[in-house]
Structures are given as structure tokens and as C-alpha cells.
Specification:
EC 7.1.1.2; 3 helices; NADH dehydrogenase (ubiquinone) activity; mitochondrion inner membrane; transport; transmembrane
Length: about 100
């Protein structure tokens, strides 16, 4: 495994462990998701550059578009949660109360 692949794999796994173990605020969960998507985008971009094929060149842009949609939906949920509950702590959210 090259050092570049190791760096992006460890960045993805670091975001995943942050998402799994540090779940106090919704904003920290969204930041971990964005870090994971950024490492996937850079790794996919480098993979298409190393492959040299033009058929996979749209894949990083498609991933980036989905990442932007995910970020906007997450921020909308963050604002809605902060307005209704007064905080973005995940312990204050209850799925049984709508």
C-alpha cells in the first residue's frame, strides 16, 4: 500500500470512528461525514487520474454533487433541530416524539 493510499484510507477510517464514537452533537456528526466524503472524493479523483480512462472522469464530480446535497440536507436538519429543541445535542432527540 502506497503512502497516499494509506493516508486517504486512514482519513476515511478516522472520520468513521469519529462518527461512531463521538456522537454528542449533530454538527460533529456532520463534520465527520464531510471528512469521509472529502477523503473519498480525493481518493476517487486520484484513482481516475492513475487509471487514465476518460469513462470514469465524471465519477468524482458526481460524488461531489451528492456530497453537497448531503451537506445541505444535514445543515437544514441542524437548523430545524436547533429551532425546535433549542440544542443540537443528539441525546435530546427522541424518535418516538414527533
Amino acid at each position: 500500500m502506497t503512502p497516499v493510499h494509506f493516508a486517504f484510507s486512514s482519513a476515511f477510517l478516522l472520520g468513521l470512528t469519529g462518527l461512531a464514537f463521538h456522537r454528542t452533537h449533530l454538527l460533529s456528526a456532520l463534520l465527520c461525514l464531510e471528512g469521509m466524503m472529502l477523503s473519498l472524493f480525493i481518493a476517487l479523483s486520484l484513482w481516475t487520474l492513475q487509471l487514465g480512462s476518460t469513462s470514469f472522469s465524471a465519477a468524482p464530480m458526481l460524488l461531489l454533487a451528492f456530497s453537497a446535497c448531503e451537506a445541505s440536507a444535514g445543515l437544514a436538519l441542524l437548523v430545524a433541530t436547533a429551532r425546535t429543541h433549542g440544542t443540537d445535542r443528539l441525546q435530546s432527540l427522541n424518535l418516538l416524539q414527533c
